Amino acid sequence: MMMLFDMIVYDLSAEYEAALIITLLCIIISFWAVMREREDLHRLILTELVEIMCLVIIALVATDLAEALILPGLVVGIAEFLALSELYIEKEGLRKAPENVLHIEVMDSAPGIIAVIFVIYGIILSGFTGGAVAGLGLLFYFMCRGSSEKREIIETVSGYAWACWVVAFIVFMAVPQYWFFGVIIAGAGIFAKVVAKMSLIGTMNGDGGEGDV
Amino acid sequence: MLVLGLGILFIGGFSSAFPQPKTYINRIINIEITSFGLLLVMLYYNETLALVTFIAVTVITTFVLVRVIERREAA
Predict the structure, then answer these.
(1) What is the mean pLDDT of residues A146-153?
(2) Number of domains chain B contains
(3) Does A55 sit within 8 Å of B38, measured CB to CB?
């Protein structure tokens, strides 16, 4: 039994070492590419490559800890991309929207139904992932329909989500025996939060004149 | 599956680091290949939540990047 256990552990660590070496090689390649690149937009794209490579290193740890580290990493990554792309647009003075924005027939007929399906599926999933799915549906909707007047509602929802979160935290701290209630509230809160954030991205594509996000 | 994932990761990483016609779109498509490598690695280690979230986030990232490129090409 002990020998079997030893064997398994040894195999796992050998696998881990090999995978780690390959990944480090990939990271070196991508950083080298960033170093050699002179154009800003290419660098921005390569940043995503580097991000993926670094996520692989975390993913190789293969525990719940890895998962817990990847999730915030992804969120910070997307925020960073939004900020950097806005900066780039500001810097290059590309304020005016392109005339030939992608516009196909599906974008007129489908948004309502697809958004509803995504939101319902997201509510079933709940939590962070459900929020992401539901937000994707809303993002698609806003992207196709283009809306600027609904922004206040999104902000309100975001505020309520914070309130939910704080209430859940207080429940955890003050009355730990009601932990399940706290989990439900926190799940609903993060769901609303992620949905609100992602549908903000959807409104971004609208009329390029006023500041978006 | 891990070997396949790492292989795809390496190939995708190399081809997006040095794409042959060096255009923005080409590079983004190559990065999608790389992210499939990451997805396979996550699948191998049973990191469901990270996998699903990564798929969702990749979509937004691509959307943001394409939006920037669109403006860049229009200007």
Answers:
(1) 64
(2) 1
(3) yes
Q: Which two tokens stand for residue B43?
A: 């699948």
Report CA-CA distances (Å) from A2 to A9, A10, A60, B70: 11, 12, 25, 60
- What are the residue ranges spanned by the domains of chain A? 11-94, 106-213
Cβ distance A198 to B60 less than 8 Å, yes or no, reads yes
pLDDT at residue A9, rounded to an integer? 56
Q: Which domain holds residue B25?
A: 2-74
Residues A87 and A81: their CA atoms lie apart, in Å, by 10
Cα distance between residue A130 and residue A119, in whole Å: 8
Q: How many residues does chain B have?
A: 75
> What is the mean pLDDT of the segment spanning A12-41?
87
Give chain B's mean pLDDT: 86
Structure tokens at B61: 């990232």
Nearest chain B CA: its distance from A159 CA (Å): 23
**Length in residues, chain A:** 213
CA distance, residue A85 to nearest chain B CA (Å): 6
| pLDDT tens-place string over residues A42-100 | 888 888 899 899 889 888 888 888 888 888 888 788 878 888 888 888 887 766 655 55
Please give the Cα distance from A96 to A78 (Å, whole number). 24
| Packing angle, helices A40-59 and A64-92, rounded to 10 | 180
Reported pTM: 0.68
For chain A, the average pLDDT equals: 77
Cα–Cα–Cα angle for A96, A37, A25, rounded to 5 degrees: 130
Give the Cβ contact number of residue A170 at 10 Å: 12
Question: What CA–CA distance (Å, rounded) separates A117 from B68?
Answer: 29
- Nearest residue in chain B measured CA to CA from A126: B49
Give me the pLDDT at residue A5, please: 57
